[in-house]
Amino acid sequence: MARQSSSRKSFIDSSIKLARSNNFLGLDLDWEYPSDSTQMKNFGTLLTEWRAAVVTEAKSSGKTPLLLSAAVLYLPYYYSSSVTYPIQAISNSLDWINLMTYDFYGPGWSPSRTGPPAALYNSGNLESGDNGVRSWIQAGMSAKKLVLGLPFYGWSWRLTNSNNNGLFAPANGQGLAGDGSIGYNQIKQYITQNRATKVFNVTVVTDYCYSGTTWIGYDDTQSISTKVAYAKGKGLLGYFAWHVGADDNWALSSKALQTWGA
């Protein structure tokens, strides 16, 4: 779609029509992920044309311009300094970007050891929310256009040895059915039903629980509160969650709101 002018125009026009017909405030693009320099260039072109079309539509309709945002990798480049996001086009065209600061570890791509799925800090490893935020700011993005991602779900592993149950413990793939993912509300049920042991790691800022050989990494209220306080302290625009449907009676959402307003 992003490669050709005609298909970009078709996408842009239809997206604006969709937003207006449903009285949306704006549109969010989720491209996971532009993975080479050509795709990054096309991504920037799409955003530039999208913004221009939104401005033109607002003038003709007399309505408030639609907000535009995008979900992006937590880093400003695709795992190589030669494949960088088009920072200027993003800054000029989008109202904010949602940093996907989660899925750092999961049984599908790191099956042999447990890990913090969404660590805020992680000494000795680049995969952390803080590293992502600092990298985007260093690349030229304003902190006021950055939104920190919070996962309302976790990932499970099957421990090799139930007595070795900390972070980075030996594991053998997912600990639960399917791909090993589990919503926060289901995690709370699992902890109660299995009398699982809960741990909060203040250094990394992550939660995990274990029962027998099943190990689950996730974010609980203390991790969420710490991350939201971090986002506010760094002067970020805010935070977002994927996804609110997995919350447990609004426990994480309420804690985040309380922390941001404190």
TrEMBL record:
This is GH18 domain-containing protein. Residues 1-262 form the GH18 domain. It comes from the Eukaryota. Coiled coil: none annotated. Keywords: Glycoprotein, Glycosidase, Hydrolase, Signal. The lineage of its organism: Eukaryota, Viridiplantae, Streptophyta, Embryophyta, Tracheophyta. The keyword DNA repair does not apply. Belongs to the glycosyl hydrolase 18 family. Chitinase class V subfamily. One of its GO terms (molecular function) is chitin binding. One of its GO terms (cellular component) is extracellular region. The keyword Glycoprotein applies. GO terms for biological process: carbohydrate metabolic process; chitin catabolic process.
